[in-house]
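Practice record 12: protein with zinc ion.
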Amino acid sequence: MEKLICGVDLGGTKLAAALFKQDGSRIDMVITHDHTDLNPDEIVLRIAALVRELLSENNLNLDDLLGVGVGLAGHILHKEGMIITSSNFKNTIHHFPLVGKLEKELGGVKVFLDNDANAQALGEFKYGAGRDGDYDSLVYMTISTGIGAGLVLNRKMYRGQSGTAGEIGHTIIDIDADSKCTCGNYGCLMALSSGLFFPELYKRKLEKGIFSTLGVTIETAGQVDGHLVNRGFKEGDPVSIAIVEDSADMVGFGIFNIFQLLNPDVVVLGGGLMNFGDSFTNRIREKFCSLTNEMMCEEMGILVSEMGTDAGLLGAAALVLE
Ligand SMILES: [Zn+2]
């Protein structure tokens, strides 16, 4: 039997693991939410237990695995298998050697680690929008709580000198903006368009006199999240509509910058904010095309991720086959 690949999606609220055949078809999956209070060493044990559980439930053992790929949000040293920092752990961690520790717990099975955007870019290239081999270069952009990207250039992952290539969320697109980003700078793409900043963006719209039909006030704007803005957008709340339109425009600027820098075949969009639907995606495309003018905008596709709910897991598993 062909060996299987295992993907682990180590999220801030969810820890999931899944077994796939090498063609990307899923065999089984487990999800837990009990890892958030664990320290990094305990999380390694938890992941190992999940992988063993998946195997035993399918009458398989460690020898049936080609490898395990782990994807998580954070700064990763891919080659060294090290997490530099990640907000997905309760306690701040620095330089945690996840790969070495997990390989030991899994009896020497090969483990691969990367940030979630890189893993999903690879997954999209192998199993999603790029699966037919039509593209040499693909940029995957996740628009969610934050914004990040993974770069497949000339059919290979590009990670940069230290592994942080693709941090498009921290490119500065408005030097006059007074929205402070998590990185400490002002005017970053993610501070003007991603879910983490919706409370602040909502408050600013209210301060400008736009009326909330959701009953949100300047005092309660701190509780606004992506779900509420999505509901407001669909129910016609003027503040939510303004935020979603601004967000789409900012992402359009971001894609234009990607286009100018890399000229890839395709940009694939994924992440929670894609739930805003077709009008969000179309506005992103319109903004991008309005900027490219005569620069052949039709030749660079802007597509929506085709990996669906498996994206994080399949992307992580794809790391094994890189
Ligand atoms: Zn930033």
